[in-house]
């Protein structure tokens, strides 16, 4: 029986079981819990919208979506509620409802209502939005480009959800062509930077890692920041290497990542990868070579996984002190919650590199580099852990988190010290 469902298993043991590598069943349970929160948020936002008489033109579509999502089986609605495109859209929609002077943004987001919420098994003609020349849907794998010189901002589209094939576009009133988006070998993970909803602009005048850097409502058309000619192998090779030597970690990547968005770097910036909490399931990665890509892929997956974990089992107690500390892995000072996330994602990357360094001997230099980098990250993690132990609070269940982090560091140290081929 899954530890999540086993009433005989203590919450502390459940957390320990989930921190390392999760089974397919446990990952599904984590997503289910998270999706239930998204469903509540969607229903609440829909209720507010239906009370707005100035939004009558959208009421029928809103009512139909609420009815469909309330009645469809949970394993189907999960597909929509776990979509990073749906989650980011819903997050922006709720924000525009709560903040003042957001009417234009609210109406723009309502224009995407049918794109982001259609899940009926009945075929229906719906008015859908065209975004920067693309017909977008909540499904990261389903994207269409307008052909020719078409510049329309919306069109009539026949949509249907098929339990085997997923969301289907049956017919469209404009000439479109489905965009081919490749997946990682043996995985359902999409690798593509074509979708305009995943090409949000960054404020290049700011420190890359500062909050407020991302403009969620602005599409970045730069071919430097989102290179169309990226190499698929850049992202597939690290994944296959992880899958070969760290199958448990590869399984977590399969479970928690739905799309990898290849990205370039603005002039003067260094970016290896990042995730955005409201785009849960998506990660952006740059090309910095195989070793760094292995580290980054595990790092970003771990951010996504930890968010799921914290929804189910709160670990870290937020503080109101607004304390920030310099840490070795960032160019800006970090709040305690950022350090908390940092020690987890770094220790997971270190575990992967430690394992690879001891098994991947077709390239001795690569293996040695992996081992050295693992030890560097362990040192950084211990630095962050000292700050957390001195300044932060965790829940009763979360106390075991710091013990687990310390044990992982000790295990990596021991493993590398016993390696026949690695010398620190």
Q: How does this model look, in words?
A:
The chain has 13 helices and 16 strands. With 424 residues, the chain is an alpha+beta fold. The chain has two domains: 11-179, no CATH class; 201-417, no CATH class. The strands form five sheets. A six-stranded antiparallel beta sheet has the order 5-4-1-2-3-6. It has a four-stranded mixed beta sheet with strand order 7-10-12-11, covered by helices on one side. A two-stranded antiparallel sheet has the order 8-9. A hairpin with a 7-residue loop joins strand 11 (273-274) and strand 12. The longest helix is centred in the last third of the chain and has 28 residues, at 364-391. The chain is globular and about 65 Å long. The chain starts with 10 loop residues before the first helix and ends in a 7-residue tail after the last helix.
What labels describe this entry?
single chain, 424 residues, alpha+beta, six-stranded antiparallel β-sheet, four-stranded mixed β-sheet, 48% helix
